[in-house]
Design a protein that fits this description.
37% of the residues lie in helices and 17% in strands. The protein is α+β, with helices and mostly antiparallel strands and 300 residues long. The chain has a five-stranded mixed sheet. α7 packs across α8. The longest helix has 23 residues. The radius of gyration is 21 Å and the shape is globular. The mean pLDDT is 90.
């Protein structure tokens, strides 16, 4: 009877994988990926050049981040903060741009009132962005745990031991700048929990208009590009290429996944739709993931 446990685990993972397979792929270019270094990697993802099949364990790990949002909101409300929930927990904080092909949704809006943290000059609502991190990533962000915990206890008398979000997680920083831009917010509260130790990291990020504008322009260029941008490196053994999902397509000319978005005849058009230059018509949304007999993959 000792095999019952493993059989249940396998059944759960299979169920999670099947549920994920029934979902449609992300139809738009997301703000969460726009801050990545490699433009080609971002473009390949937008064009569905490769569909990654994750194991059930990894899918459950990804889902844990969303489940933690409820806990973050409860903790912030517990200290007296006003929290307006985002789409993952019932709200409607989403944006869309570039003909519906670029967008995102934030976790929450937060209000840091005077009675919560006296003397903090943060007017109006701010963005609430909640993340989870493994211990290694958390230490890179906040510093060695012993030093970080001492800094939290006495931040005035000590030097911050970590790198902060801009250096440690620039894609998160860019994501928040974009959200603040579209939601017209002037600050963001970045909250991260270490999954191994339950340490909390909190950082206030201020809106940078020039940075936000530069990255919204980047989004427009990527959406409109009919050919992949330059590689981050021509060397397939480069550390950022080694573990990239698109490595075989980018460096070894592997054939992309078959669907309309990876075809040379397709292009994004208004209302988040795709059109086919070969048949001169809009492609039905249900057909986009399939491709047709005339599919000609983008090979560069």
């Amino acid at each position: 009877m000792q095999d019952i446990g493993p059989r249940i685990v396998k059944a759960i993972d299979k169920s999670v994988q099947e549920a994920e397979a029934r979902k449609k792929g992300r139809s738009h270019l997301g703000a969460s990926v726009l801050g990545r270094k490699c433009l080609r990697q971002i473009w390949y993802g937008f064009r569905w050049m490769h569909i990654t099949q994750h194991h059930g364990r990894m899918l459950r790990l990804f889902a844990r981040g969303h489940l933690e949002e409820v806990t973050f909101i409860k903790l912030l409300r517990g200290i007296g903060m006003l929290v307006q929930e985002g789409p993952e927990t019932g709200g409607q904080f989403t944006f869309s741009d570039h003909n519906g092909h670029f967008g995102g949704s934030c976790d929450a809006w937060v209000h840091l009132m005077e009675n919560v943290i006296p003397g903090v000059p943060l007017d109006g609502p701010g963005l609430g962005e909640f993340k989870t991190a493994g211990e290694k990533a958390f230490i890179d962000l906040a510093g060695k745990l012993e030093d970080y915990r001492k800094w939290v206890t006495d931040p005035v008398g000590r030097t911050f031991p970590g790198k902060g979000v801009l250096t440690s997680k620039p894609e998160h920083y860019v994501q928040m700048q974009i959200y603040m831009h579209y939601f017209k917010l002037k600050w963001a509260l970045y909250v991260v929990v270490c999954k191994n130790t339950d340490d909390l990291y909190v950082e206030v990020i201020h809106y940078k208009a020039e940075m936000a504008a530069a990255y919204t322009d980047r989004a427009k260029q990527l959406v409109e590009a009919s050919h992949p941008p330059a590689r981050i490196s021509k060397d397939p053994s480069w550390w950022e290429c080694k573990f990239c999902d698109f490595r075989e397509i980018c460096h070894r000319s592997a054939v992309p996944a078959k669907n309309c978005r990876s075809c040379i005849y397709s292009k994004p058009v208004e209302n988040g739709e795709w059109a086919c230059d070969k048949f001169h018509s809009t492609i039905p949304s249900d057909y986009v993931p399939l491709g047709c007999d005339n599919w000609d993959p983008i090979m560069e």
